[in-house]
Amino acid sequence: MNSTAHLNDLSLRLLGRPYDDLDLEESRVLQAIAARAPSSRDAADLGDAQASRGDRLADRVAAIGGSWGFITVFTLVLLGWMLLNSEVLQRFGLAFDPYPFIFLNLMLSTLAAVQAPIIMMSQNRQAAKDRLTASVDYEINLRAELEIMRLHEKLDQMRFHELHEKVDELCARLEAQE
């Protein structure tokens, strides 16, 4: 039996549909079953392999920008800026951004305008990784379910042969007694 016919037979027997009607995950699972190959894959590795340089940069920016270390350092820099421009440098007439800190507001707005889309890119990438993980999990669950079904078939066949042998044995005993 060629591989296409074998895959179609497996598909009809296990999923109740022709092989050509299966989606990508189902066909990949049936191919792995037919080849007796493992079908598990690491979704994180697959996601990282598909990541572009910009994706990895967005992940790093989001990891740094969403940390307590960043918040602490950023708060200290802001407080230092305000103290420096309102107390220290103003005494000497050298304050480059006196109260109401217009330049600081511009820098904060620019940072927020740049950082927000970068964090959203990272979140979109994480959502894509989650979808990939769900797809891989579906394949593994389907493979497990199909393998359990195949094991049940084999057990049923073994029981049938066992019962058939016992019936033949009993028939032979009855014939011998007659």
UniProtKB/TrEMBL annotation:
<feature type="transmembrane region" description="Helical">
    <location>
        <begin position="101"/>
        <end position="121"/>
    </location>
</feature>
<feature type="transmembrane region" description="Helical">
    <location>
        <begin position="61"/>
        <end position="81"/>
    </location>
</feature>
<dbReference type="InterPro" id="IPR010406">
    <property type="entry name" value="DUF1003"/>
</dbReference>
<protein>
    <submittedName>
        <fullName>DUF1003 domain-containing protein</fullName>
    </submittedName>
</protein>
<dbReference type="Pfam" id="PF06210">
    <property type="entry name" value="DUF1003"/>
</dbReference>
<keyword id="KW-1133">Transmembrane helix</keyword>
<keyword id="KW-0812">Transmembrane</keyword>
<keyword id="KW-0472">Membrane</keyword>
